[in-house]
Amino acid sequence: MKVYYCIFAPKNRLLNAKIKVAAVSYLNTKPLLYGIERNSIINEMELLLNYPSQLASSLQDGSIDLALLPVAAIPSIPNARIISDYGIAADGNVASVAIFSQVPMEHIESVYLDYQSRTSVRLAQLLLEKLWNKNVLFIPANEQYIEDIKGTTAGVIIGDRALQQLDNFKYVYDLSDGWKELTGLPFVFAAWVANKNLPAQFITSFNEANAVGLQNLDEIVAENHFPYYDLKKYYTENIHFHIDIEKKKGLDKFLKMITA
Q1: pLDDT per residue as tens digits for the range 217-258
Q2: I need a labelling partner for 203 at 20 to 30 A (CA). Which of 106, 145, 173, 246 fits?
Q3: How far, in Å, CA of 162 to CA of 62, rounded?
Q4: Burial of 227 (0-12, 13-18, 19+ CB in 10 A)
Q5: What distances in angstroms separate CA 124 from CA 10, 40, 67, 106, 171, one per listed residue?
Q6: Domain edge (last residue) among 159, 183, 207
């Protein structure tokens, strides 16, 4: 699938209307939302927070205009275009997206799939097949599924909950690490995706606002007490917020693999 990276847009109906923007409320989005919420561009937006898996349906039905979208959902969005140089990515260990297990990979027989993110689920399925050569039973997860990860049943856990669980399981298989091992490329988990043309000035200002938080990471860490993991390390070593050329290559490869 070809991914369109939009750097300008013609005039359209949104020039005189508030743009509906949605993102998740995980810790990994805090640096991006920091600048958006403090920039005058917030006055041009309605900012909504939701699970990553629910953002796709909102973009599909047109109830929102722009979302920090899990990238596996991009092929399902009509007129999808990436409008920012920023998103959620990793080059190796990401810490917050992994398969958790009490037994080693060779003994895993079934895997719970986290209901909150389509991208992490598809990545886990790809890696189980192509990297770890596993044929397992996939189980849709309910809200309490982490309690049922035991024996030969593993589970995909993402986001803040994954960081909380890092010390609670004997085996943690980081999915971004696995992707790097399989392809040699970074992995993009989420990108700012629009379903229509947006005003050029909005795109420029939005991109600039995304960058502001990366200059204020110490303040963001101080504002978000989280005893389970070093957030400064998370924001500077695990998460990569700038979507550069290599990350775009990784994104293109992932989309081709899941749409082949």
Answers
A1: 999 999 999 999 999 999 999 999 999 999 999 999 999 999
A2: 246
A3: 31
A4: exposed
A5: 38, 39, 23, 15, 15
A6: 183
Q: Which two tokens stand for residue 189?
A: 């988990």
**Residue 8 located in a structural domain:** no
Residue 203 shares a structural domain with residue 79 = yes
pLDDT at 16: 56
Same domain, 176 and 225: no
Overall domain count for the chain: 2
- State the DSSP string of 147-210: GG--TTEEEEEEHHHHHHHTTT-SEEEEHHHHHHHHHSS-EEEEEEEESS---HHHHHHHHHHH
126 and 72 within one domain? no
Query: pLDDT for 154-210, tens place per residue?
Result: 999 999 999 999 999 999 999 999 999 999 999 999 999 999 999 999 999 999 999
